[in-house]
Amino acid sequence: MTENKKLNQKTILICLTVTLIFVLLGVFCFSYANETLDLKADELGLKEQTIYDPPFPDYNITNFENKWSNLIVSVTATLLLLIITITVAKVISKKKDQK
Amino acid sequence: MHIPDGLLSPTITIAAFIITIIFWIISFKKIKLTEQQVPMMGLLTALFFAAMMMNFPIIGPTTAHLLGGAVIGLILGPFAGLISMSIILVLQALLFGDGGLLALGVNVLNIGIIGVFIPCITFTALNKLFKPKIGTRLYATIFISTFLGCLTPAIAAGIEIGLSPLSPWYGLSIAVPAMAINHSIIGTAEGIVTVILIATLLKLRPDVLEKSQILGKITLFKHKTKNEETLNDRE
């Protein structure tokens, strides 16, 4: 294995660990969200108008709203996002190489 | 920062979608990724998606989260940065209802375009002006660029909300300061995080930054390229 590959694997491992730590902190320590827009809407007694019901509202599984379902959804979404972004980046990179 | 549906006027919503689509087309045409940048794009996108889940208390009961557009833009370039942030925002809107579907154009405009291109433009301008070497000046340049990359999307969101007749915020004088004050605090935090991340990469993985459209232009890499060219000429 070349040194470059080892270095790449080490970087990937560090980044994934930090990402997992962020997810854990987001779920267990910093999950309470009350952004400026939400706060103002609450003050004015307004409710969000939605045109579509998302499958995992507020990063939770409907009817199982707790920290653990929040964690499962968050970890799955992060991995899904990682796969999607790498796939998009690879497709772009290949197309550019062909040109 | 994520604007929900029903808050903005149709004119602003449609205009933002048009601008976003134009930027998407340009970005897909102009994006350049090296072999090392492909996994880095995925990792940074996942990292800042996770970072967005952490809501930090700021003033009173208000919370805010990191955005990540500046750091991704500075490391991978503005076009890759826009695509990364767009993937995050589409996923957040579709799966979690974090930001409205109709407001997706506005959210991409604010977080993905303004939040990525402003720090990249600022960094390029300051880098040309001061030519900072590794050290306090370079980190100050990164900090300022990131801070603006957090503040300007908030101001843009404030303007869009303030100008919308559907908005309950009653004009620019309320919407803009409310968004700007809170996000200047989170901008400071994001600036510090970005400086730490880039300083670490400069120390451990300078090869990732060397080919960057933005950070690849810093004095360190320019000198390195010139030295390599001189060596090649001699050979």
Task: Give your account of this protein's structure.
- The complex is a heterodimer of chains A (99) and B (235).
- By secondary structure, chain A is an all-alpha fold.
- Chain A contains three helices and no strands.
- In chain A, helix 1 (3-28) runs antiparallel to helix 3 (67-98).
- The longest helix of chain A is centred in the C-terminal third of the chain and has 32 residues, at 67-98.
- The model of chain A has no long low-confidence stretch (mean pLDDT 83).
- Chain B is an all-alpha fold and 235 residues long.
- In chain B, helix 4 (78-96) runs antiparallel to helix 5 (104-130).
- Chain B is globular, with a radius of gyration of 18 Å.
- The N and C termini of chain B lie far apart (55 Å).
- The mean pLDDT of chain B is 87.
- The interface between A and B is large, with 57 and 61 residues.
- The number of strands of chain A is 0
DSSP summary: helix tally of chain A: 3
Overall shape of chain B: it is globular
Q: Give the SSE string of chain B.
A: HHEEHHHHHHH
- Number of helical runs of chain B? 9
Structural class from helices and strands of chain B?
mainly alpha
Report the major sheet of chain B.
2 strands, antiparallel
The helix/strand series of chain A, from N terminus to C terminus, equals HHH
Distance between the termini of chain A: 30 Å
Give helix % range of chain A.
55-70%
Q: Return residue spans of chain B where pLDDT drops below 50 for at least 5 consecutive residues.
A: none
Q: Biggest interface between protein chains, with counts per chain?
A: A-B, 57 and 61 residues
Q: Tell me, what's the shape of chain A?
A: extended
Mean pLDDT of chain B: 87
**Strand element count of chain B:** 2
Radius of gyration of chain B (Å): 18 Å
Euclidean distance between termini CA atoms of chain B: 55 Å
- Unreliable spans of chain A are none
Backbone CA Rg of chain A: 19 Å
- Strand residue content of chain B: under 5%
The averaged pLDDT of chain A comes out at: 83
